[in-house]
Amino acid sequence: MINSNLIKSALATSLLVCALATGASAKDGVLRIGTEGDAPKFSMADPSGNVTGFDADIANGLCAELKLKCEFVVQTFSSLVPSMDKDRFDVIISGLGITAER
Q1: CATH number of the structural domain spanning residue 16
Q2: How high is the pLDDT of residue 100?
Q3: Using CA atoms, how far apart are residues 52 and 102, in angstroms rounded to an integer?
Q4: Dihedrals φ, ψ of 60, to 5°?
Q5: I need a surface site. Which of 42, 45, 47, 92 has the fewest CB within 10 A?
Q6: Interval 64-79: pLDDT, tens
Q7: Is residue 98 part of a domain?
Q8: Burial class (CB in 10 A: 0-12, 13-18, 19+), 81
Q9: Residue 102 included in any domain
C-alpha cells in the first residue's frame, strides 16, 4: 500500500522544483496559483472564490513549506496556460498534460 503522505510530499516537491525551474517568483510573500476550480475532488471553487480539493491541498502545503500565502486565481481550463503567459499568476496547479502546443 502506498502512503498518501509520501505521494503528497513527492508531488509538492515536484511542483516546487517546476515552479523554481520556470522562474516563478512570489511577490510580497504571495504565490499566485492558477487553477480551474471546476474539477470535483481536485479543484472546486465556491461562489466566494474559496478553492478546495486535492490541488488546493497541494498548493496550501507548498505555500506552507515556502512560508508564503497562497492566492488562487480561478480560470477556465483552456485559459490557464495563456493566462500564465500574461503573468496573471506564478504557477499552475491543475491536471495538465504535456502536448506539443504547450
Answers
A1: 3.40.190.10
A2: 83
A3: 26
A4: -65, -35
A5: 47
A6: 888 889 999 999 988 9
A7: no
A8: middle
A9: no
What count of other Cβ atoms lies within 10 Å of the Cβ of residue 92? 23
> What grid cell was written down for 77?
481550463
pLDDT at 91: 87
Reported pTM: 0.70
For 34, the grid coordinates are 492558477
Question: In the chain, which stretches have pLDDT less than 70?
Answer: 1-26, 96-97, 102
82 residue type, one letter: P
Q: What is the pLDDT of residue 94?
A: 85
DSSP 10: H
Phi, psi of 70 (to 5 degrees): -85, 135
Cell of 92: 499552475
Number of independent structural domains in the chain: 1
Three cell numbers at 3? Answer: 502512503
Write down how long the chain is: 102
Report if residue 62 sits inside a domain. Answer: yes
Q: Tell me which residue range forms the domain holding 24.
A: 4-92
Residue 99 lies in a domain: no
